Amino acid sequence: MKKTTMIAAGLLAASAGTALAGGIDRSGQSVAPLFEKGNYGELSFGYVSPTVSGTQEQTLSASSTAGAKSGDMAGSYNMPAFAFKTDLGHNLAGALIYDQPFGANVDYPAATSLPAYFLQGARATLTTHALTGLLKYHFENNVSVYGGVRWQTMAEHIDSLPLSTHTYAAQGKGQGAFGYVAGIAYEKPEIGLRVSLTYNSKIKYNTPTTEMLDGATVSSSNTPITTPQSVNLDAQTGINPTTLVFGSIRWVNWKQFNIDPTFYESQVHSPLVALNGNTTTYTLGLGHKFTDHWSGAVSLSYEPKVGGFSSNLAPTDGRSAVGLGATYTVGKVKITGGVRYILIGSANTTVDNTNTAAHFSGNHAIAAGVKVGFTF
User: Fold this and answer.
1) Domain spans, the chain
2) pLDDT tens readout for residues 204-232
């Protein structure tokens, strides 16, 4: 069998779906550029437009009663990324990868009629930026090992969150911290086979946080926050000279993640943000090379429900998606585009850890991306 060469289309079709995955997962923390041949660089840009809305199930005040509609509370967001890979010597390669692995963009609309949803006007953002440096050593038996360090920054902001009869806000100052990556892979390039297992460590922060009530500062303290550890299993193989099957399993340890500012916890006796369980996302796809210039792929993904209550700032549970991708290759340049339609699983939220505050269902998202890769 001749070497299968149309890998890129399938991988972007898959990555467009990872842009909306469990918890606040976004990029999927791929190390795929490390396996490119020769010297290689890529630039990519993704855009995700989710629609997430729910209905209040619990009467919480005279003006916020059961039946109130949340409106679309999930803001759209962009996902820029870049990577550079180079051969450093015999069987040794290095890569530098930038992505935005985790994030949230919450914007509950202000009420335009009664009854008013209990989180009307609440807004929250969480942003991360990660720069990962990797080295890979390839043994003569087709096995390679790789690893490196990741520098990741995180900042968070919450505004106009109702707290009893007051309005709560919190600002977490941007912080940076190190984590690490380790992995092992097996490759047979002549049939397009590669299986890789990658571990991404958790990263701990001690974030200086200012909390405010009705605009007045009530607490300035440090908030411990841990972004989760994860494991990626990726596989691909050619089934004939022009067709490739690929898939992945991504597990994320969300039980390690919560945001629990001092003053908020003292009033509510529960974290401001906590996710209700670990997630596992499965992806399976098929790619085909149509001509020397064009190839395409289709992928399916599924993330089972975790169950229990979801956070009011992340009111989703589980998802399924279908994606399409296409790559145009000319000379040393590959241009890839992908689009994915995502069905977002229904979820119940709570404010007292006992009763359902709101039910979210019938939601979806559209994700699209473009990537330009070049060898030199």
Assistant:
1) 7-375
2) 999 999 999 999 999 999 999 999 999 99
